[in-house]
Specification:
The complex is a heterodimer of chains A (350) and B (594). With 350 residues, chain A is an alpha/beta fold. Chain A has nine helices and twelve strands. Chain A has one domain: 3-Layer(aba) Sandwich (Rossmann fold). In chain A, 25% of the residues lie in helices and 15% in strands. In chain A, strand 5 and strand 6 form a beta hairpin. Chain A is globular. About 3% of the residues of chain A have low confidence. Chain B has eleven helices and 28 strands. In chain B, the strands form six sheets. Chain B has an eleven-stranded mixed beta sheet with strand order 5-6-4-3-7-8-2-1-10-15-14. In chain B, strands 17, 18, 20, 21 and 24 form a five-stranded antiparallel beta sheet that branches. By secondary structure, chain B is of the alpha+beta class. The termini of chain B are far apart. About 4% of the residues of chain B have low confidence. Chain B folds into three domains: 387 residues, no CATH class; 30 residues; 35 residues. In chain B, 39% of the residues are buried. Classes of the chains: A alpha/beta (350), B alpha+beta (594). At the A-B interface, loops of A face helix 1, helix 5, helix 6, helix 7 and strand 19 of B.
Chain lengths: 350, 594
């Protein structure tokens, strides 16, 4: 009976995934899905640098935003923080467009982008409040991280960093201890199931050194003592367009489709030393699963494991009045005359 | 029992059946209507103004604002939760040039601007302040703008300029207004995306498909607006209408579009033609202004009809395209309108400026004090009443006793000491870190003259942490709002308040036309400290200490012995000889003295 239901589910998935390459899900995946505690995905993408010469940090964060959105995480579950505006900046010769490449291959800004924290709102305080959930009274819903115990959270930070800190907007810093504390609070408040922490700054590995919370997998674009380098300059805008690590990460992610079989382990190998010049650092000791067996869509996409149930479920029908309005029985609304008060009332003597 | 079951089944199925007919006669049965319009007006010196207006009107049951169909639920709920009766939000980038372009259909100032009217029997000033801040926070999430920076330190309650445009049954004493402006806000695709999501058809079909981010940000003026108002019957308070108007006002400079200066088309402006109309729309129309300074443009395809609108004695000719009719037959196609300007006529007539326009600038030099100057010009042959509202933020201290208005006739260049009498309509002094300065002045501006209103200001030194991260950019003072009433309708294109569609402005002559102009925003350089100073001072101090400590330590702890001054010969041979002789003399001395 279970087998038949499973086959049915597989058949449905097959029909839906007709346009994608993989059509049969491996049994191991279904097995993992039956036992997993992962129910939804969130992403927190932060660009902490301001000013035109930090164009590449905005391009970095928009590249990851684009991938994450393409692979299925909805805007309501992505918190995007961009400290300065590059797309509609007066210096941008192509308004409304941010490219990852001087040949303008991909417009990472695109036509459908929602930035939650922008400009002066990108501060250390707002970032820590976001992670811990202690946002101020009245904060809009789209600016809160409403993750729960089943959420896989992706955190991506980019900007200028040093040994043990990340610089926010050239005026303040967040230290690795504060990051570790924030993530520990998230664990204690059950705000994540698994966390994937990506950093693309100089000496990025120092930012995950102090982590102690379980189920955290971290990758950094450079080790302590090394600088992360940027990829290339676009002569038409005069500044570096994108950083190396994120450029190659985007190249990898562009080839990933929502039903892809690629694993996080493959993603951790992206950008070897010969192209990145800095060494990519990885922290696996806090992560209990083997990264080679974790699908990349566990963090970058929003594929939910489906569980087939044969139990009986009680359903309560809602009240009918909530669902239809009886047009025939409602009295037609009376049209009334619209009279607006006079708009200029100041009595000024001539 | 079976009969009951059959009856419930019938009741359940009937809305489905009703729903079927609903799809075909959508606009007749439901109380919600959606209209989309596009107005294209060529402006002087090769500019084109395209104005999009999406209006949703809901005449319905208001006990429960949650059952919306076309009105976005997020807007409808806010009206109920925060007792808002009227709300205006504008996000603009660019400056509207009144002298060459006339008046816009919807006024907006650079950056973000929002104002709202609250009305409810239990409201007090304090509760309105709290609700206003919460409202701004909610909209910062809806429109992805930093509207959460609006709080009591930069909001005011205008008295004479922003009058209610809503109808509510209620006491005047329970109506409160708040206004705030954030000149530093930018407008980009991140604001356009959620704005489009508020439309019934989103960006999938209809006129909103023309708003492509790559094309509409390459404009000289770009403004997005959301306006909501509630109109209730004075006899029957539960008979209410909710009207949501979303506007996008763009001004293109044809010289930047890299082809000819006088020809353009929808495809060149927006990157694509129209591929349909919004299915939820009751009407979908394009209005094109056909005459401009006595010249007529050639349009392909020709408009369905032409409407001559006479407003206050001035005629404007509009061509109308009905998109629903264009797409009536089957088959997918793209609809494009092309304008061909008159050829061989490079010299355009000199545009005459509108009856009233204004500029604002800063006078004075240095970072200690200056003067804010607003210049209002009346080119009309009659005197006009003018109300000027200024919102000066708390970090700029304005001195009321230095407020002066000087005037000059239009043809002169210099301002004389001729002072105009003005009446101070409202003054709320500012308080550091708490309130902005709110000034409203009214005066009669004589015919064909300009007035210069100046007020002296001091720039304050802020505390270290109050400076923004890019402190050297400067701080903004928002634009002034100038209200007036025009007796003639020249260049006037705003919609009459009793109507809600652009076509309601055709032949809508009134006794007087109310204007609210906006001026430029100002940037002041407050005295900004050098933030790298502490680091530099530490380096310098440590260097000085190290340089001083070394020699002092060595002087204090080492004994200085003066060496006897002997003539020591310079070259090597003599040195050797000298050494031998001194040794010899020392040896003899030792030998002889022992």
């Amino acid at each position: 009976m279970l087998h038949k239901a499973l086959l049915l589910v597989l058949a449905i998935i097959q029909i839906n995934a007709a346009e994608y390459d993989t059509s049969i899900l491996p049994e191991a995946y279904i097995d993992a899905a039956q036992h997993s505690t992962h129910t939804n995905n969130w992403a927190v993408l932060v660009d902490a640098s301001r000013f035109w010469f930090n164009y590449r940090h905005v391009a970095n964060v928009l590249s990851i935003y684009r991938s994450v959105k393409r692979l299925g995480i909805p805007d309501s579950q992505i918190i995007l923080m961009i400290a300065d505006d590059m797309a509609c900046n007066a210096r941008n010769p192509r308004p409304g467009q941010v490219y990852n490449n001087a040949n303008q291959h991909i417009n990472v800004y695109g036509d459908d982008v929602e930035v939650d924290y922008r400009g002066y709102e990108v501060t250390v305080e707002n970032f820590v409040r976001l992670l811990t959930g202690r946002t101020q009274n009245g904060t809009a819903r789209s600016k809160k991280l409403l993750s729960d115990a089943g959420s896989n959270v992706l955190i991506y930070l980019t900007g200028h960093g040093g040994d043990g800190f990340l610089k926010f907007q050239d005026s303040e810093e967040i230290t690795s201890q504060e990051l570790a504390d924030g993530i520990q609070q998230m664990w204690e408040k059950k705000r994540y199931n698994e966390l994937f922490f990506m950093v693309d700054t100089c000496q990025a590995a120092s930012l995950y050194e102090k982590f102690t919370s379980p189920n955290v997998l971290a990758v950094a674009s450079s080790l302590v003592g090394e600088d992360s380098l940027s990829h290339h300059v676009d002569p038409s805008i005069g500044v570096y367009m994108i950083d190396r690590y994120t450029y190659y990460a985007l190249e990898f992610l562009e080839k990933v489709q929502p039903f892809s079989k690629r694993t996080i382990g493959e993603f951790l190998q992206v950008c070897p030393k010969r192209v990145c010049i800095s060494t990519v650092g990885v922290r696996k000791d806090l992560y209990r699963r083997d990264p080679q067996k974790v699908p990349i869509t566990d963090f970058f996409g929003a594929i939910r494991p489906t569980r087939v149930s044969t139990d009986r479920i009680n359903v309560t029908l809602a009240d009918e009045e909530d669902f239809y309005t009886d047009f025939d029985h409602m009295p037609p609304k009376k049209q009334f005359k619209i009279v607006i008060q006079p708009q200029f009332i100041a009595k000024i003597n001539k | 029992m079976i009969a009951e079951l059959a009856l419930t089944l019938l009741l359940l199925l009937s809305p489905l059946a009703l729903g079927q007919t609903q799809i075909h006669q959508f606009q007749y049965q439901t109380d919600e209507q959606f209209h989309e319009e596009l107005v294209v007006r060529p402006l002087a010196s090769d500019h084109v103004n395209t104005y999009f207006q999406f209006t949703t009107r809901w005449h319905g049951v208001h006990k429960n604002l949650y059952h919306t169909q076309l009105t976005p639920r997020v807007i409808a709920e806010i009206l109920q939760t925060y007792d808002v009766k009227e709300l205006h939000i504008g996000l603009t980038q660019g400056l509207w040039r009144y002298e060459t372009w006339g008046y816009p259909i919807v006024e907006a100032t650079g950056g973000a601007e929002l104002w709202a009217w609250f009305s409810s029997p239990n409201l007090t000033d304090d509760s309105v302040n709290k609700q206003w801040m919460r409202l701004a926070n909610v909209f910062s999430g809806i429109l992805c703008a930093s509207l959460n920076f609006v709080d009591n330190t930069n909001s005011i309650a205008p008295k004479h300029i922003f009058r209610p445009q809503f109808m509510a049954s209620g006491n005047r004493s329970h109506q409160f207004v708040r206004y705030a402006t954030l000149p530093r806000e930018i407008v980009c695709t991140e604001n356009l995306t959620p704005w489009k999501k508020l439309l019934p058809c989103g960006s999938a079909s209809g006129l909103a498909t023309l708003l492509n981010s790559g094309y509409i940000h390459n404009t000289k003026y770009h403004s997005l607006g959301v306006k909501v108002r509630t109109l209730c019957d004075s006899d029957d308070p539960s008979n209410c209408l909710v009207e949501l108007t979303q506007t996008a006002n763009l001004v293109y400079d044809l010289k930047l579009l890299e082809q000819s200066n006088t020809d353009f088309s929808l495809r060149r402006l927006f990157g694509m033609g129209l591929n349909g109309y919004c299915e939820m729309a009751s009407s979908s129309k394009i209005y094109v202004q056909l005459n401009e300074q006595g010249e007529r443009f050639q349009l392909t395809p020709t408009p369905l009809e032409e409407v001559l609108s006479t407003v206050g004695g001035h005629n404007v000719l509009f061509g109308v395209y009905d998109i629903q009719q264009q797409f009536e037959g089957p088959g997918a196609r793209l609809f494009n309108i092309a304008w061909i300007g008159p050829k061989g006529n490079s010299k355009r007539e000199h545009t005459s400026p509108p009856p009233l326009y204004a500029h604002r600038y800063l006078l004075g030099n240095g970072q200690k004090h200056g003067r804010i100057a607003t210049e209002v010009t009346n080119t009309h042959y009659e005197p006009l009443p003018v109300v000027l509202m200024e919102l000066v933020p708390w970090y700029v201290h304005a001195y009321l006793h230095t407020l002066r208005i000087s005037s000059k006739p239009q043809h002169l260049h210099e301002y004389t000491s001729n002072e105009l009498k003005f009446s101070l309509l409202h003054y709320a002094p500012g308080k550091q870190r708490e309130l902005p300065t709110h000034l409203e002045i009214g005066f009669m501006l004589p015919a064909r003259s300009s007035a210069l209103i100046t007020i002296e200001v001091d720039y304050l030194l802020l505390k270290w942490l109050e400076y923004p991260p890019d402190a050297n950019h400067g701080h903004y003072i928002g634009s002034a709002v100038i209200g007036s009433q025009l007796p003639i309708g020249r260049n006037y294109t705003a919609l009459p308040l009793e109507g809600y569609l652009f076509q309601d402005s055709f032949n809508a002559s009134q006794t007087a036309y109310t204007l609210t102009l906006r001026t430029e925003a100002l940037i002041v350089s407050l005295p900004t400290p050098d933030f790298s100073m502490p680091y530099n001072v530490i380096c310098l101090a440590c260097t000085v200490v190290a340089l001083a400590f070394g020699p002092i330590h060595s002087v204090a702890t080492k004994l200085i012995i003066v060496e006897r001054q002997t003539t020591i010969p310079r070259n090597l041979l003599r040195k050797v000889v000298h050494k031998l002789t001194t040794r010899f003399s020392q040896a003899i001395h030792q030998y002889c003295c022992q």
